[in-house]
Structure formats: structure tokens, C-alpha cells
Amino acid sequence: MHLKISHITEYTYAEPVRYSLQRLRLTPLTQAGQKVIRWETEVEGARMEVGYDDHFGNRVNLVSVEGDRTSIRIIAGGEVETEDKAGIYGAHQAYAPLWLYLRGTPLTRTTKPVRNLAKSMAGDTDLEKMHALMRTIGERVEYRQGETGTETTAEQALQQASGVCQDHAHIMIACARTLGLPARYVSGYLMMQDEVEQTASHAWAEIHLAGLGWVGFDAANGMSPDDRYVRIACGLDYRDAAPVSGLIHGSSSEALKVAVTVEQQGQSQAQSQ
Q: What is the CATH number of the domain that holds 40?
């Protein structure tokens, strides 16, 4: 599938920003299941300093701001050709060793509620257990915006039974690690049903399974990623794969506005799921 993507992020500050250093993870790479045809990332009100690949294999751009700025605008977009691989990404390829993805993080702690959920999954194989886990998380944790944030843990989202795709991914990751399976967080894009304009990018989990390698599970939608998905970045949790992260000095508060569009090239609207 030929997807056209636009991702605009705009920060407006209550007071001028004297200094800022931001990491942008907004560049998809040609890899299993996707081929980047063209992609550009531009910034307004800031300076692009350097680009590099981090230990998770993500393409990162460092952006700095010096002087008095009250707004920063980041514009990323392009075209990607995708292929449906039934969620299978394949062999592990990154500087970070596979065992690192067994390590818990503050957002994906293996607490008692997480362990109980993980151990309740039935299945003859790990693949069957992960599909059962994906379906169970989707059933137990209702998709509701505005009730969780970037600091919400897997346990908190599970106990309050609501959250967004980030929370579904964190719960899936925490449960998989409880069962001894390497797991990682993936950020990217999803072409939604009859919804070209979106308010955020998407996220899902990938679990490393014997004989298959990395396999994607999107508990928020109850499916493994297909050709409507584009991978951008991955890591142990949201913090490692966030589209924009960093530090700011000189502003007491900020307002964030995000506009994302994902559509099939040559069509006026996205096809149904």
C-alpha cells in the first residue's frame, strides 16, 4: 500500500524559551514491511543540529533553540510503500542486545496485577498466548482519551481499565516480560477507518518469539500490524520512542498542538479497516 503521511507538531510557550534541546524521532526507515519513497523533516523556530541512529536503531535528529522563542513548529511527512507481513517484523537487528528488552522500566513494571494477567493466558505456544493477551487487554482496558498521560504506568492503566494505545502497549509489554519474552514499544502511524485527520501518532507492542523474531500486537485495535501501519521508532517503553522529547529552559508552561494525516496515495480518504 502506498501511504502519504503528514505530521505537524507545534509548541507555544507562555514565556520565551531561552534554550531547548529536543530529540526528534520522526523519520521512518526502509525495513521489513516498508519502503520509504520520500521523507522530509523541517523545523521552524529552531535549528537542526545533527542526525544519528541510536542503540535501538531509531533515526534521531537533535534540534536546538537559543534566544527568545515563543513557538516551535516541527513538520514531518512523506510517502511510504508498505506490505502486509501479518505483523512479523522478523530477526532482531539493533545495537541493543535482545536480553535488554526483558528489562522492566518505571512505565512497564511487572507488578502483581500485571503478573496475574500474564499468567492467566492460555495457549499451547507463546504466539497463541500473545494473541490471547492482546485480545484480553483490548477487552479489559477501554480506549478512552484524556484519562491517562505519558507518565501513566501499565499497572495504573490496567487497574482503571481505560487508556489509549500507549497504555495498551505498555500493558502488553509488561505482561510479555513477566513470561520471559523480550518486548518493545513501537511508535508509528496507522491509516484509520474513514479518518484521514488524527490527533496523534499510533503505538503498539512487539514481542520476540522463537522461530519468528519480532511480532507486532496492537491491543488497542485487536490485531497484528498490516500494510496500514508504518513503523517510526522503538524502545523499552514510550520514553525511548516518543516522537519529540528533550529539555526546555525559560518557559513556565507550554501548549501542544498535533496534526497527523495518514491516507492512501491517490485516494481522498483512508480505506476501511
A: 3.10.620.30
